[in-house]
Amino acid sequence: MNGRGRALMGFVVLALIAIGALAGGGLWLWASRPNARSIAQLSGAGPATSPSGGVLGQFSPVDPPRPAPPLSFEARDGSPRSLADFRGRWVLVNLWATWCEPCVREMPSLDRLQEKMGRQLAVLAISEDRGATHVVDPFLEKLALKNLAIYLDPKGAVGQALGVRGLPTTVLIDGEGRILAQLEGEAKWDTEALQTKLEHLMRRGTSAAEANTTPSH
């Protein structure tokens, strides 16, 4: 086999590997992080353990809370948005992509979570698709989401800033811009157990913030 034939064969093999990985549960690639893997692939201790050592689909508290980095992204109409626009509100940043099967599965429950929480919590579903609206808009028409705000991050800047290692990943940020918890992997956001945990984290974060601002006597 000549050099051109070997190169073609190598391309075919890589294509088959990529197709198999996608079919098996959402291999993903950051635009500038070519060695990234899916959450499940990064788990060294089994499919139920996240790369950070937590449990997939469950919140891992960040203690003490750490300041969130500046996050810039786009609205679907192309206008610039940032985390600073939501200062003073609790925010749940969910990083997802149309080609990530676990991301797609959890989006309807995220939509129901936003409906239930209302103004208490802003759920920001930020797409990491490189194709931006060209990919996201046709996809969303099929999902018929009613409450979820969708944003775009085609360059993967938000994921890089947060140090995300796989999709989906969700980060809870308080009104002061501090990260209180992170959840890696798919979750059923409209279940009572997860909503109770979320509300507990929010109450604890609010109490801590009030304690820090209360003048001593």
Average pLDDT confidence is: 80
Helical fraction: 25-40%
From N to C, what is the helix and strand string? HHEEEEHEHEHEEH
Largest sheet: 8 strands, mixed
**Class inferred from helices and paired strands:** alpha+beta
Task: Look at the structure and name the CATH superfamily.
Answer: Glutaredoxin
Compute the CA-based radius of gyration: 19 Å
Query: What percent strand?
Result: 15-25%
Number of helices: 6
Question: Order of strands side by side in the largest beta sheet?
Answer: 1-8-7-4-5-6-2-3
Briefly note the CATH topology name: Glutaredoxin
The CATH class assignment is Alpha Beta
**How would you sum up the global shape?**
globular
CATH architecture: 3-Layer(aba) Sandwich
First-residue to last-residue Cα separation: 84 Å
- Low-pLDDT windows of residues: 7-47
Overall domain count:
1
Q: How many beta-strand segments?
A: 8
